[in-house]
Amino acid sequence: MPLPPGFSPVDFPQFHRQLPARLAAERGRLVARAATGLGSLALRVSDGAAYTYRPHAGGVEVIPGDDTADTIVEMDLEAWQGLVHELEAPAGLLYAGRIRCRRGHAIELMAWESALRALYNGRPPYDPANPGLRCRHGDALDPHATFTLASGREEMADFLGAAGYLFVRDVFRSSEVAAFVKEAHELQCEARQGDKLSWWGKNAAGEAVVCRVTRGVAKPHLATLPADARLLSLKDLAEPSFVYKRGEGQGVTVIFKHPHMAEGLGDLPWHRDCGMGGHAVVCPVLVASVYLTAATPETGELAMLPGSHRASMNAHDQSSELSAYAAHFHALPGDVSLHFSDTVHVAPPGSATATASAPSSASPGPARAITAARAATTTSSINVTTARSNAWRPSPIACERRAAAKLMPRPAESTSANLGTDALATKVPCSTAHTRVFETGATC
Asked: CA–CA separation, 247 vs 428, rounded Å?
């Protein structure tokens, strides 16, 4: 797969001849941290050229050839160049069948993800026990902090930039949430498998249930979310400026959270949205979620790893217990969360064993009753995002500073809703409408 415009070819041997000098500077320390406990890895391109990365206490030794490597992974030159440019990710290459393991285990390429990012791009590995969360003045930040629309904007902007997420209370009124929930259930009833505008899964009983509907803009109240003044005001906290872009589906996605899911994407493990590739052309995206019902451990609340958008990690490794280090947002109807798409986050299954007893709303109402009665749904949420699907993307000025292929151009039909943020997603539990709305040029 050829490199897109704006990305220069990388000479495989010359690049590796230059790596020792980079390691002798600052990268050696970063790579040493990231490669702790890893076996040696050799990358071989299709013409047979290969280099081995062997970890040691001071970093990584770069050795021509692959005779002594524990694992040998072969790929096309273009795939390796994509890794260097962050167009590709180890998981995406592995799952797409674009690598060939000649020795050892292919999964080791994913284990090396943080070390490769440190080696190739100088990005530090993520340390969940010490995320280094500080504001621009150097003061420590509480990763579990929540805010309101009346909070100081500088404080909120500081937190969003440092943590990669923001939790905001009481943004939407109960009457507005009720209207969203009603329309979300209408979308749920109208969805059909194979319609290409909904995602489906199966519960433990083998029943097909809709997990996501991407045509929220077809409903009058949900359609207002991308241009809602409160969301736009929150979007403006992010740096740099973001513009609205219709992303996933038709611009507003409604997410339904079901208990006891056995198949599908109803529950999501730790991940970043660019984990399969595309970071260089997609991120950053700002996702805003508007909650329609309560998000709790019983219903499966959204959780974030503080500061993970500024570091690298193999988010696909589910062996480590990250939940203890995460910020969990116990949301109520009308609350909003923002997060950057490359912030590592999780949408786990709920811990409730009985659907009827699991609270889906802070206060009783039609939404909760309808949701609980329908396919044993305990909670659903509306996500208005501004990312890949529906998102705030970088402003035109930011795009000019970036290679043409690295960012989607601003659409001609852009309106006042097309502000500057990478992706703003609004998530609403109980009938979650997810809309990726804003994108940004933060990495220009």
From this structure: 18
Report, in this order, helix, strand and coil percent for the chain, each rounded to 5: 30, 25, 45
CB–CB of 148/166 below 8 Å? Answer: no
pLDDT at residue 102 is higher than 70: yes
Retrieve residue 346's tokens. Answer: 């999780």
Contacts of 400 (CB under 8 A, 6+ apart): none
Report pLDDT digits (tens) over 270-290: 888 888 998 988 888 888 889
State both tokens at 288.
Answer: 């805003």
Picking from 357, 350, 267, 280, the residue whose alpha carbon sits closest to that of residue 92 is 280
Instruction: Count the neighbouring beta carbons within 10 Å of the beta carbon of residue 189.
Output: 10
Say how many Å lie between the first and final Cα of the chain, rounded.
Answer: 24
Looking at mean pLDDT, say which of 79-88, 126-135, 297-306, 421-430 comes out highest: 79-88
Query: Radius of gyration (Cα) for the chain, nearest Å?
Result: 22
Q: Are 436 and 254 in contact (CB under 8 A)?
A: no
Q: Which domains does the chain have, with CATH numbers?
A: 12-121 (3.30.1050.10), 147-440 (2.60.120.620)
Distances (CA, A) of 216 to 191, 206, 220, 365, 390: 11, 27, 9, 21, 11
Model-level pTM? 0.80
Q: Are 386 and 414 in contact (CB under 8 A)?
A: no
CB-side exposure of 17: number of CA atoms within 13 Å?
A: 6
Whole-angstrom Cα distance, residue 216 to residue 81? 38
Q: Would you call 258 helix, strand, or coil by DSSP?
A: coil
Helices (H), 207-320: 229-235, 279-282
Residue 238: phi and psi, rounded to 5, are: -80, 150
**Residues 366, 372, 375, 378, CA torsion sign:** positive
85 neighbors 79 (Cβ within 8 angstroms): no
Residues in a beta bridge with 340: 286
- The enclosing H or E element of 380 equals strand 379-386
Identify whether the C-beta of residue 38 lies closer than 8 Å to the C-beta of residue 71: no
